[in-house]
Amino acid sequence: MVSVSRRAFLNRSMAALGAAAFRYPVWAQTNTSAPSVSARLLLGVDYYPDQTSEARWEEDAQMMAETGFTNVRIAEFAWALMEPAEGKFDFAWLRRAVQTLHKHDISVILGTPSAAPPPWLAARYPEIVEVNAQGEPLHPGGRRFTCPTNQTYRRLSLSIATAMAHAFAEVPGVIGWQIDNELTLSPSPRCYCNFCQAGFQAWLHSKYGSLDNLNRNWGTVFWSQTYTEFTQIPVPLPSGGDPNPGLALDYDRYQSYANVSFLEEQLGMLRKACPRHFVTTNNVGPPVDYIDLRDLYKNLDFAALDNYPGFFEMLLHEQAKATDVSWDFINTTVALEHDFARGIKGGKPFMIMEEQSGKAGQRTFSPQPEKGQVRLWTFQAVAHGAMGVNYFRWDTATFGTEEYWHGILNHDRSWSPAYDEIKQTVKELKALGSEVLHSQYPAETALVFDYDCDWALQIQPGHYALRYMDQITSWYGSITASHTGIDVVAPGADWTPYKVVFAPLAYVLSEAQGERIRSFVQKGGMFVSNFRLGVKTETSQIVRTPLPGPLHDVMGVTVADYVPIYSGRPAVRFSSVLSGPDAEVGIWMDVLQPSGAEVLGTYTSGAHAGQAAITMNSFGKGKAVYIGADLNAENLARVLRTLAAQAGVTQPLEVPSGVEVTVRAAGNKQWMFLLNHTPALQTVNIRRPSTDLLTGEAHNETIDLSAYAVRVLQAG
Ligand code: GLA
Ligand code: ZN
């Protein structure tokens, strides 16, 4: 059932909170400074000695060393072997596995096993199971079926992790930890059980202080929901009508928080027990969005994401029931994930903890990666800021739910089709070395990703087809089509490095965020947003002033009306700097009344013909652009690229479609990555003589990229 879980989960997310600042006082915060990983090469593989006969370990370790791997991640699902009965620990086998690997110079990242509690635990403590959004309890038998709030589950998770930490703190070869595995990635990412209800009530008590305050902030007088005791507050399970939006948004924040604090219990312990080891966890970035990853990784040493472009392609096929899906869309979405990963810790290089190495799938197989694609995917991650990559997985299981998930060895232990290119890639990355892998990623533009907006719009999309994630993806794709460097940032990030900040669907807008936007524009930045700007307060109430609320002077407009569109699409006529062919409006239009802003687009048909659709306002030393009309990808790309150029944003190279360009830099050194995502030969005009660091070849004016080829260029 796990396969269904993952698929259903991703499907839902694709088809589709920062309570970050708030902390429940009981759960420990950890801020102990972490060991530096800046010189370490993490080029490894995910390995399952627990699922492999011990007679094979020596051979496996030797083959890994011959491949060039520096490390493995192990044990993240081995709870049943490590604690066969409550309180009875057995780490002897794991110690032998670590020793065998270490003998071959393979370092070890240990996974704490809380994602898969053993049957004895679920049988003895049935109350640990998660309850889904329909109010039905999950059942043991898969993985990730537990409640993040439940104290028994937390106690037992911490207990096995603590026993592991003490057993391995000083074992040579162990270098770091992965806590749990992909928190919230399951068919029911949020839990709605009684323990979570009590946890939610306590969290609300801390957040709001009093019931009066809570009732006022949620507007509970509506439908007679005034609470007179905290214990009366429900969780958003099915009722006769949808829940209060303030309650629903706070519940999403609480669930994110509960998972983060679950992780931090183990983190606090690991910092004390294993001060020499780094600590991280693995997850997948948006479109999986049930946990605020910035909050999750806040006290971890680096972000680590899992990357399965081919599996993603399979899901898109299933959804669209199509024979072909656009690889451009896949590349762009994967690039967005990587840029998001880099942004999780403010630009710090991240790790890919699981990189697809072959056909992937649980019930069905993804397509076989084309020759060169696994190397290309690896370099794409590095091109966007990865400092390490682990391939998933070493061998391919012949039993269990993931028998179809191909690793580096086939079922019969022959090498997989991608083996040679993986070996080559590892060698190449080692040659590039830690200076390149740990370098920075310069960006002149930023795209704001705000969990509050995402969650609030899932609760009340306003139009059935309006999805935050879709807008984020299409804005990201529109901007990066010109290969300008972009950071994906939190609303509260430091925006001073950027010439332009793009913030689509900034629907929930705190006062502090409004101030940040105001000051960014005042000081000379360009802020670009679109319809539904500043509609809601942080407690999910609609603002009482004309839209865009407190930003009306910054944007230089008032929203005269906002219009969901179902049929009869109006068009926009562009003017001034945006001049170009008319564009049809998609699913939404905000009708703008300029109060000082220049009109760059006008509705030409329908009830609002002649009224402003797109405006640009000069405010302080900067500009603020309001795109009231929902535009298709082509028009949006033209508009956003024109605006970026207006703001003086530079692009490294003009390249053919399907070729990606990124730049990483350290001091005054720069490395340009060229990635050919197409199966055809592509020729790129490079602007200055450069050397390809992978081949040592010098190139003057043009450079050829064969199918799925990668180049890493250094000027001179
Ligand atoms: C995820 C998990 C792994 C494994 C792979 C393949 O990323 O972290 O445990 O399940 O997917 O399904
Ligand atoms: Zn629960």
Give the strand tally: 27
Q: What portion of residues is helical? A: 25-40%
Question: Helix tally?
Answer: 19
Provide the list of bound ligands, each named once. alpha-D-galactopyranose, zinc ion
**Distance separating the two termini:** 54 Å
* Quaternary form: single chain
Low-confidence runs of at least 5 consecutive residues = 1-35
Percent of sequence in beta strands: 15-25%
The whole-angstrom Rg is 26 Å
Form type = globular
Task: Summarize the structure in words.
This protein has 716 residues and is of the alpha/beta class. It has 19 helices and 27 strands. The strands form 5 sheets. The chain has a 9-stranded parallel β-sheet. Strands 11-10-12-13-20-19-18-15-16 form a 9-stranded mixed β-sheet, with helices on both faces. Helix 10 links the parallel strand 6 and strand 7. Helix 16 packs across helix 19. The radius of gyration is 26 Å and the shape is globular. The chain starts with a helix and ends with a strand. 53% of the residues are buried. The N terminus is likely disordered. The structure holds alpha-D-galactopyranose and zinc ion. Zinc ion (ZN) binds next to helix 7.
